[in-house]
Design brief:
There is one protein chain. This protein has helices at about 15-20, 110-120; strands at about 15, 30-35, 40-45, 50-55, 60-70, 75-80, 90-95, 100-105. It is mostly beta strands. The protein has a single domain (about 15-120), classed as Bacterial Pleckstrin homology domain (PH-domain like, Roll), CATH 2.30.29.50. The strands form 2 sheets. It has a 5-stranded antiparallel β-sheet with strand order 1-2-3-4-5. It has a 3-stranded antiparallel β-sheet with strand order 6-7-8, with helices on one face.
Length: about 120
């Protein structure tokens, strides 16, 4: 599992590549809503969960997939980009896991991510 406390995700940018990487992990009826990629790692939002992908090793052939079901979210926080600070952040608090933090580039629609999570949590 990804160590979210010690692992610094690079800024995530919208990218369809990771949607393809997790396609074999999807359940029947599960659909990718959006996907984001950093230098090597990625995050995929589906209609059932968030899948964090951690690419490991020099060649990148080893990957860790962490499934974060929406049903385990107890709270979340969204920080949008500003005039001078163009990055945005998503902090999610999971029961039994704790806080998970993702950082996005300024062009990311944090409102859409917030609505997606709210639809499953509220």
């Amino acid at each position: 599992m990804i160590d979210f406390n010690n692992k610094g995700f690079f800024k995530l940018k919208q990218n369809e590549e990771y949607a393809e990487r997790v396609s074999s992990l999807l359940l029947d009826g599960e659909q990718v809503i959006d996907s984001y990629k950093s230098m090597r790692d990625g995050v995929v939002f589906t209609n059932k969960r968030i899948i964090a992908v951690n690419v490991q090793g020099l060649t990148g052939s080893k990957k860790d997939f962490t499934s974060l079901p929406y049903k385990n979210i107890v709270a979340y926080s969204v920080e949008t980009s500003g005039t001078f600070d163009l990055d945005s952040e998503l902090e999610i608090y999971f029961s039994s896991l704790g806080k998970v933090k993702f950082e996005f580039t300024g062009r990311t629609s944090m409102v859409e991510i917030s609505k997606l999570i709210s639809q499953h949590v509220l």
